[in-house]
Amino acid sequence: QVQLVESGGGLVQPGGSLRLSCAASGTIFSINAIDAMGWYRQGPGPQRRLVATITRGGSAQYLDSLKGRFTISRDNANNTVYLQMNSLKPEDTDVYYCGAGGTSGSYYDVRYWGQGTQVTVSS
Fold first, then answer.
1. DSSP, res 34
2. b or e along 74-85 (b: 16 or more beta carbons within 10 Å of the residue's beta carbon)?
3. What is the pLDDT of residues 22-36, one digit of tens each?
4. Any bridge partners for residue 41, and if so which?
5. Is 6 in contact with 21 (CB distance < 8 Å)?
6. What is the DSSP code string of 39-108?
């Protein structure tokens, strides 16, 4: 099994920044079976929505509306993925979940979820 532990959420003013971290732990076999890691947020819909994902090889994808504000990065040696969030807006307020799974990074390809970390953007 793989456990994902997020950190870095909190309260920030509009225009501010936060950096989320997600560290994966587990057996070597289970860790090696993961390709994409990333971040998802609940949004108003019935399922979590992809924010940004990145593969072991560094291929990243983003929700189009977030490009230029959010940057995903990954430290494969430490099995950790980061999300740098800049120019935050109130509509970014949500619970952000770390996910890990298959190459596509799709919500449906996530095999492991973190517990979520709250991001609140408010003055």
1. -
2. beeeebbbbbeb
3. 999 999 999 999 999
4. 49, 96
5. yes
6. EEE--SSSS-EEEEEE-TT--EEE-GGGBTTEEEEEEGGGTEEEEEE-S--GGG-EEEEEEEESTT--GG
Decide: 63 and 51 in contact? Cβ < 8 Å: yes
Identify the band that residue 93 occupies on the pLDDT scale cut at 50, 70 and 90.
very high
Q: Are 7 and 114 in contact (CB under 8 A)?
A: no
State the Cα–Cα distance between residues 29 and 17, nearest whole angstrom: 35
Place of tokens 């190459």: 103
* β-strand pairing of 60-62 with 2-7: unpaired
Given this model, what pLDDT does residue 67 score? 81
